[in-house]
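Why do we care about 3D structure at all? Because function follows from shape, and shape follows, mostly, from sequence. That is the central idea of this module. The next example makes it concrete: a single protein chain, its amino acid sequence, and then its structure expressed as tokens.
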Amino acid sequence: MEAVVEGENLKQALARVKRNKGAAGIDGMSVDELAAYLKKHWPMIRAQLLEGTYKPQPVRRVEIPKASGGTRPLGIAMWAA
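And the structure:
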């Protein structure tokens, strides 16, 4: 878990979300708003993750089109304090 909550890992994950044009989650927070939110709340979130007390928010469900037709479900997890 230490590697997961490392600051550089968080920066790389956020960069990937931005690069992939991540969508707002169930809370409506945009990717651009997420960076500021994490700067303010990351120490508390990190501590909760390390202590095993973090409670994730509901997952936003979206349907992704498949190349062969139809769709597949995708769950987008949200960060919240």
